[in-house]
From TrEMBL:
UniProt cross-references to Pfam families, sorted A to Z: NSRP1_N (PF09745)
Record lineage: Eukaryota, Amoebozoa, Evosea, Eumycetozoa, Dictyostelia
Cross-referenced PANTHER family: NUCLEAR SPECKLE SPLICING REGULATORY PROTEIN 1
Keywords: Coiled coil
Residues in coiled coil: 146-175
Stated family: Belongs to the NSRP1 family.
Bias type Acidic residues, positions: 20-32
Domain Nuclear speckle splicing regulatory protein 1 N-terminal: 58-175
GO biological process, one term: regulation of alternative mRNA splicing, via spliceosome
Organism: Dictyostelium discoideum
Ranges for region Disordered: 1-38
Protein name: Nuclear speckle splicing regulatory protein 1 N-terminal domain-containing protein
Amino acid sequence: MSGEKKYGLQLPKPKKNVFQDDDEEEFKEDDDNNNKDGYIDYIKQKQQQQQKLNTKVERQHNEAILEDPTAFEYDSVFDSIKKEKDKKLQIKQQQQLNNRESKYISSLMEQSNLKKKQFEKVKENQILKERELEGDKFKDKEIYITQAYKKKLENDRLEKEKQEKEEINEQTKKKDFFSFHRNLYFSIHENGT
């Protein structure tokens, strides 16, 4: 056997210890017979370790089930949690759809109303200029003013007073360019006339 070549992992054979007792050699010979010429049976060791590990894991698994029977029911618990979240999300989405308001429509409506009022003022000024140009042409004719027109004039006067008060308050509060330009525009026209 010494002349044959061996391939693979070669572990050295254990050397005999000179200082060892004969009794220990007998015990060691029993172990050596199991290990086949001093080679360690790695497969058996690995299997034994795996069995120990499996028994330990099984014991922990059984203890956990005794403490809480639903400890390993991940899927059912996860599904129930997900269903609850989905229901809450659907309720929230329904509420948002029901209470849905546009972000910018209120400011756009305010600006639209303001521009309409300014347009009406411009029209009234044009009518007044036309009357002045006509001069005394229609001086002998009667002027008819309806109740609706009187109410409109009164509302316009009240809104103008209210708007002037608001402008004074807004000048200090607002910091956007629209109010700045509007104030600049009105200040130029007031100083110019």
